[in-house]
Write a structure and sequence with these properties.
Keywords: ATP-binding, Coenzyme A biosynthesis, Cytoplasm, Kinase, Nucleotide-binding, Transferase. GO terms for molecular function: dephospho-CoA kinase activity. The chain is built from ten helices and five strands. The longest helix is centred in the middle third of the chain and has 24 residues. It has two domains: 116 residues, 3-Layer(aba) Sandwich (Rossmann fold), CATH 3.40.50; 57 residues, no CATH class. Helix 3 packs antiparallel against helix 5 and helix 7 packs across helix 8. A five-stranded parallel sheet has the order 2-3-1-4-5, sandwiched between helices. With 197 residues, the protein is an alpha/beta fold.
Length: 197
């Protein structure tokens, strides 16, 4: 087995690379999906979030109001740390369970958007960073997501810098070209990682 950390800034194409690696047979463990699972309605994770932040963060149906939670923690580092102290241990535990189920020869890809920020890069056999220039990130968020330039730049500023991500990389996937070029790059990357597994 080879344990791979996959990361990239917002609108870098990390999710596309993750999906392409899965097409090649990699076991993808998506931290964002797990983070949603661990605070789903009826979970101990959601109960802990409500105990910490209050029931105002629930929708009428009893689900976590993700936009409201985002507004609360986005500009408040202390609130974000408190939320992360609840969610991160639950995500780590579930990720470890999924990894334990993978075959010995598997390429196990941990898709972690904030890998550079979390200081866990050293726990992987390889770290893949999907990279595009900041201006490309902004252009994609404006064109594809309908964000304002200011909102896009603020979200980028809240993440690790491009340089900080590249500093933890053992492999860099340039995603400034076409989807076909990206497919070729990811195929070569998977072959290399599978050879090491």
């Amino acid at each position: 087995m080879i344990r791979v950390g996959l990361t990239g800034g917002i609108a870098s194409g990390k999710s596309t690379v993750s999906a392409l690696l899965a097409e090649h047979g990699a076991v993808v463990i998506d931290a964002d999906l797990i983070a949603r699972e661990v605070v789903a309605r009826g979970t101990p994770g959601l109960e802990a979030v409500v105990a910490e932040f209050g029931a105002d963060l629930l929708t009428a149906d009893g689900d976590l109001d993700r936009p409201a939670m985002g507004r609360l923690v986005f500009g408040d580092p202390d609130a974000r740390r408190r939320l992360e102290s609840i969610i991160h241990p639950l995500v780590h535990r579930r990720s470890a369970e999924l990894e334990a189920e993978a075959a010995d020869s598997a390429v196990v890809v941990h898709d972690i958007p904030l890998l550079a920020e979390g200081g866990r890069a050293g726990s992987f056999d390889a770290v893949v960073v999907v990279d595009v220039p900041t201006e490309v990130q902004v252009a994609r968020m404006v064109a594809d997501r309908g964000w304002s330039r200011e909102d896009a730049e603020a979200r980028i500023a809240a993440q690790a810098t491009r340089e900080e991500r590249l500093a933890i990389a053992t492999h860099v996937v340039d995603n400034t070209g076409t989807l076909e070029e990206l497919r070729r790059r990811v195929a070569g990357l998977h072959d290399e990682l599978a050879g090491r597994a």
